[in-house]
Design brief:
heterodimer; A: alpha+beta; Alpha-Beta Plaits; three-stranded mixed β-sheet; about 35% helix; about 15% strand; globular; B: mainly alpha; Formate dehydrogenase/DMSO reductase fold; 16 helices; about 70% helix; binds iron/sulfur cluster
């Protein structure tokens, strides 16, 4: 069986062209062990008094405009607010829970995952895990597809659906700018009871466990974020079970990029093998058939 | 029935007219052409399109909020649920029929292949239209191609593949357009590239059809466990094969009913045999799908979720999937074209349900209260689909899709 040169060039050409694309797709899937010395935050829910000063500080640091209700107003606790609420004008929200007669406050915001789902979702690389720890967003390239919202297991990123011309993705950026300038994130600085601690993530993890070991009756035996979704930059310790505070309990410990890694790794395989398989079938079918245009042309 | 979609008869006596007239007004004077457009179907279609366009205008003036119910928990609604995730699997028509005819050499299906490619092309084109409506910053749609890459994203792969495949299909279909325009040299060029284009189509389709499923691998807690599975890429791919095939069966039936005067004898006479042949393939593919689906649920250990409302809803979808291959099998055995067509319809409904369930209906199933879609979004979806039908009709009315161009008979593709 003879493969005409044209067929060969065509099939070969498509293999090369398409596997180049496959390479770019597969290149991003190598495993990631985390930047050394990255920063994180630790929220101690046994300390939080629900004063909402972190919200106010966040609003100010990020120029988020005057909120509808003032930051002293406690009526906002009537409902469970989402991490970003335009009306509140903050990238973070403190929610109130009553657990076994105890009042517990929980601050919600982006978890700054170690290997974020949103980053692996973003098709233009607008979202990035910065070497310093915060997960950042680049306004200049975001196309507004909102796959990050679909992917984030913590329901964090928010989109400005009311903006036609420059809708932004809104979420906490862990005051990336301040961190690179050597200052502490605004919320941690504002907290009057040190319920939010800023520091290197590995140090914070030790701090979290030392608090638990130091007062085993006060804390439950779990640092939320140590392993969740492959580990998060934001850690929580609490005196009551996390499940009672609306924490996502079903997300497992696998880093989200792992979920699509297998799929992306077969891309190359398909691109390289399909032309051979189908090109082969084609040649087998058309060996003797005179009706085929290609052969007609070759003979001419 | 033919008066519902009034199509002017191209086979009227040949007169010497301006070529523009010939190409665009179907050999009628402009006045007569406009007159010929006024019929109930066009009036209803026109109203839907106008309202839809008004809503789309609102969306670009006031943001997505004006027409959709998309939120920060449920970012995608019907625009993508229908336009991208449901539209693309049916648009596999071009790639499955192209493969059958040009790679496997199944000449029997030659009469429908051009139509299948046109349907595929339009499906992708309108998927992009839906995407442009839904993207927050649609003017940046080309960014992932040249400006900023997110290669670890499955959606990056989808974007590239849809863009490339749209071009491939445009080239594939262009041979019909060149026949219509009478440009022999260009036609010869694209016909010569058929093999390359078909193989490129196979590669691109395999990957992006499955990638549409793989996109939801990132939402394990959000898609209901009876739908979420690590098998999703394969399930999406296999069902897309079936979707492409049943789309050909059903549209062929519709052309037989409404566009007879645009088809030639060869096309009309071959449809029954073709439908039965495709029916056989569908039975096999759908048996495979059902097996794969059962395996996936067992593998994910999700049978426990069968109780409750979502479980019931799953059974509705699954029974349709399970019924379809049996019906196809029976129809083919009895050589009953009607049964095969009904089975195709059942399959179509099952696949639409499956995609909407994964993307939309069961998404965030753990939330106690979930908002339904906004009615304006429904109108926009219907309007864009209506435009697609009108464009399809416009093309079929002019170009050799359901017929061979008399000047090019005997010069078919490979
Ligand atoms: S919590 Fe969500 S938005 Fe924040 S880094 Fe993780 S995946 Fe991204
Ligand atoms: S909306 Fe923007 S940031 Fe989010 S995935 Fe799409 S392009 Fe990336």
């Amino acid at each position: 069986m003879k493969m005409s040169r044209r067929d060969f060039v065509k099939i070969g050409g498509s293999v090369v062209a398409l596997s180049l694309m496959g390479n770019t797709a597969a290149a991003g899937t190598h495993s990631f062990t985390g930047y050394p010395d990255r920063y994180g935050m630790l929220s101690d829910l046994t300390r939080c008094i629900g004063c909402r000063r972190c919200e106010a500080a966040c609003n100010k640091a990020n120029n988020l405009g005057t909120p509808k209700t003032s930051f002293e107003d406690t009526s906002v606790f009537e409902e469970k607010r989402r991490p970003y609420v335009a009306d509140v004008g903050s990238y973070t929200a403190v929610n109130r829970f009553e657990v076994d007669g105890k009042t517990v406050y929980r601050k919600v915001q982006c978890m700054h995952c170690e290997e974020p789902a949103c980053v692996s979702a973003c098709l233009v690389g607008a979202l990035q895990k910065s070497p310093e720890g915060p997960v950042t967003w680049n306004e200049k390239v975001c196309i507004g597809c909102r796959y990050c919202i679909t992917a984030c297991p913590f329901y964090v990123p928010a989109f400005e659906y009311s903006s036609a011309f420059d809708p932004k993705i809104q979420k906490c950026f862990m005051c990336h700018q301040r961190i690179t300038n050597g200052t502490v994130p605004a919320c941690a600085e504002a907290c009057p009871v040190e319920a939010i601690t800023f520091g290197k993530r590995d140090k914070l993890l030790k701090l979290a466990w030392s608090r638990i070991w130091g007062e085993p009756d006060k804390y439950i035996d779990h640092v939320y974020g140590e392993r969740e979704a492959g580990g998060t930059g934001w850690l929580y310790v609490s005196g009551v079970p996390f499940s009672k505070l609306d924490f996502q309990m079903d997300i497992g410990t696998t880093a989200y990029p792992e979920l699509t890694k297998d799929f992306l790794s077969i891309v190359n395989l398909t691109l390289v093998s399909w032309p051979a398989v189908f090109g082969g079938i084609y040649l087998m079918n058309h060996k003797d058939k005179k009706t085929h245009t290609e052969e007609k042309e070759v003979k001419k | 029935m033919t008066d519902i979609i009034e199509t002017e008869d191209l086979r009227k006596t040949e007169t010497v007219e301006y070529w523009i007239n010939e190409l665009f007004f179907n050999r009628l004077s402009i006045k007569d052409y406009v007159k010929s457009l006024i019929n109930p179907f066009n009036i209803v279609a026109g109203i839907i399109v106008l309202v839809g366009l008004a809503f789309i205008f609102m969306r670009f003036a006031f943001g997505l909020e004006a027409i959709t119910d998309s939120s920060n928990t449920q970012a995608w609604g019907l625009l993508l649920g229908v336009g991208l995730f449901t539209g693309v699997p049916f648009s596999a028509s071009g790639f499955v029929m192209g493969t059958a005819v040009y790679i496997f050499g199944l000449k029997k299906y030659q009469p429908v292949v051009t139509n299948a490619i046109l349907l595929g092309f339009l499906g992708y084109l309108f998927a992009v239209v839906f995407l442009m409506t839904d993207l927050g910053r649609p003017w940046r749609i080309y960014y992932p191609m040249i400006l900023s890459f997110g290669p670890a994203s499955v959606m990056f792969l989808v974007a590239w593949h849809v863009a490339l495949y749209l071009s491939v299909q445009a080239l594939e279909f262009s041979s019909s357009a060149f026949e219509w325009l009478g440009i022999r040299s260009l036609r010869k060029l694209v016909v010569g590239a058929t093999l390359g284009l078909t193989i490129a189509g196979i590669m691109l389709s395999t990957l992006h059809q499955s990638a549409l499923g793989a996109m939801f691998l990132l939402a394990p807690g959000k898609v209901h466990p009876l739908w979420w599975s690590s098998y999703m890429p394969w399930l999406f791919f296999v069902s897309a094969l079936a979707a492409g095939l049943v789309y050909v069966i059903l549209v062929s039936k519709l052309t037989q009913m409404f566009m007879r005067n645009r088809a030639d004898e060869r096309y009309l006479a071959s449809l029954d045999e073709i439908t039965l042949g495709i029916g056989k393939a569908c039975a096999l593919i759908l048996f495979t799908y059902v097996g794969l689906r059962l395996t996936s649920i067992t593998y994910e250990n999700a049978w426990g979720y069968l109780q409750g409302a979502y479980g019931m809803w799953f059974l509705v979808e699954f029974l349709l999937f399970a019924l379809a291959p049996l019906m196809f099998f029976y129809g083919v055995q009895k050589k009953n074209v009607g049964i095969v067509q009904v089975s195709a319809l059942v399959t179509m409904i099952a696949i639409i349900l499956n995609r909407l369930n994964t993307v939309y209906i069961t998404f965030n199933w753990q939330f106690p209260h979930r908002e339904l879609f906004y009615w304006k979004e429904v109108i926009v979806v219907i309007a864009v689909l209506t435009i697609e039908v009108l464009v399809y009709r416009w093309i079929v009315n002019r170009m050799p899709v359901l017929r061979q161009h008399p000047d090019f008979i005997g010069e078919e593709h490979g």
